[in-house]
Each structure stands twice: as structure tokens, then as C-alpha cells.
Specification:
Blueprint: H1 3-12, H2 16-31, H3 39-42, H4 55-70, H5 76-88, H6 92-119, H7 122-150, H8 160-168, H9 177-190, H10 193-224
Domain HMG box: 49-117, 154-218
Coiled coil: 200-227
Protein name: HMG box domain-containing protein
Length: 233
């Protein structure tokens, strides 16, 4: 675990997920980025009450504006480190005051969450449950895709149409990609079968090479114990 993340987790009594969550909030505030919609908001349901910031998070939020002003060129990760160092030497009475604020906010959060859950209809609860399950599946797929890429998984070639489109890229002049794609799709549909054959052969050749590389890569992954990344051919 990186030093900053490990130190943050110890200070803030949280796990890696807690660190990632706070870092996202910190970066969103620093960069004035638009926060992502919650699952409830995506479904058109009022959002769930937010968890209150911990004592360390409150301190960080209060210190952040001044540190940004004093260190405009510092990256968010460097600012987090600076705040963590300040927290270590913060007066215990101030820490206690922040901890009391958190406890008070936490009690309110628990009550607000209870009221929120009771306000949801059975249908809304079911929709939220399904959406969360789908989000977990999607995240698992993304994680697996990233792991495969890091382990050098061979890339599957595009279709014969994709090979044709690549030859047309130099003809794109100022038009949007959607317009360009529509034009090329029409050209492909009008292309005689005899001319399409060249691109189909290119695809078949690359597909065979891909399958050979994939079979070898799968063997390597099994030998390394990475059974979860093995792909079917």
C-alpha cells in the first residue's frame, strides 16, 4: 500500500475504499469537477443522505482552501500529504472538538438514513437493488479488463468493416466522427463483394494470429495462477 494511503487510513480509521472515496471528493473540490450522480439520482429517486465527513476529513476540508492558495502548483496528492502532516501535530483539544462534530453529525446521519429507507416504496428499493448489482458486475468487468491489459493480453482484431474504415480515415476533413462513420458505413454497404473480400481476408488472417497468441497467453496465465483472466477463444 502506498505510504500516503496507508498513513491516511491509519489517521482516519478507514480502509482503502475510504481513502479512495475521500480522494475523489478532495479532487472534485480542487478541480471544480462535477460529481457523479448517485444510483438513486440516475433512477430519478431522491439521493440517499451523505455520510458525514470524519474528523480528519473536516480538518482537511477546512485547511484545503488556504493550502491551495499558498501552493497553487501542488498536486492533490501533495496537498493530502501536507494536510496529513499538519493533522499529526494538531492540538488534541482541536482534534477532540472535530471528533465531537463528527459524532453529532453521525447521529443525525443515522436518523436521516432510517427516514430515507422508510420513505422508499418497494418498487424503488427493488430498482436500486438491481442497479447496484449491475454496477458491481460492470465494475468487475472493468477490473478484469484492466488486469488483462496489465498482463499483456492480446487484443482481438476489429471486423472487416473496421479495416475498411481505417483506409478512409485520411479522407475525413472537418466532419464529426458520427458523420464520418455514417458516410463510411454507406460506402461499405455499397462496396462490391469482390472488393470486400480483401478486407475479410485481412480480418481472417489477423484473427488466426490472435487465436494463436491468445492460446499461448492463456497457458502462461494458468501457469502463473491467474485463472480468472483466461479467455475463451
Amino acid at each position: 500500500m502506498p505510504v500516503i494511503r496507508e498513513f491516511f487510513c491509519k489517521l482516519n480509521n478507514c480502509n482503502v475504499y475510504g481513502f479512495q472515496l475521500w480522494t475523489r471528493r478532495f479532487n472534485t473540490s480542487v478541480l471544480n469537477a462535477t460529481p457523479k450522480k448517485t444510483i438513486e439520482e440516475k433512477l430519478g429517486i431522491p439521493r440517499r443522505p451523505k455520510r458525514p465527513p470524519t474528523s480528519f476529513m473536516i480538518f482537511a476540508s477546512e485547511r484545503r482552501p488556504a493550502l491551495i492558495q499558498q501552493n497553487p502548483d501542488k498536486k492533490p496528492s501533495a496537498l493530502i500529504k501536507m494536510i496529513s502532516e499538519e493533522w499529526k501535530i494538531l492540538d488534541e483539544s482541536k482534534k477532540k472538538e472535530l471528533q465531537e462534530r463528527f459524532k453529532k453529525d453521525w447521529v443525525k446521519y443515522l436518523q436521516d438514513s432510517k427516514n430515507y429507507d422508510e420513505s422508499l416504496s418497494p418498487g424503488e428499493k427493488e430498482r436500486i437493488k438491481i442497479e447496484k448489482e449491475e454496477a458491481k458486475i460492470l465494475q468487475a468487468k472493468r477490473t478484469l479488463k484492466k488486469k488483462r491489459a496489465e498482463l499483456g493480453c492480446p487484443k482481438k482484431p476489429g471486423s472487416s468493416y473496421m479495416y475498411f474504415m481505417q483506409t478512409k480515415l485520411k479522407e475525413r476533413h472537418g466532419e464529426s466522427f458520427v458523420e464520418f462513420q455514417q458516410k463510411v458505413r454507406k460506402q461499405w454497404e455499397d462496396l462490391p463483394s469482390s472488393e470486400k473480400k480483401k478486407f475479410e481476408e485481412m480480418y481472417k488472417k489477423d484473427l488466426e494470429e490472435y487465436r494463436e497468441k491468445m492460446a499461448e497467453w492463456n497457458k502462461q496465465m494458468l501457469a502463473m495462477g491467474n485463472r480468472d483472466v483466461v479467455r475463451s477463444l
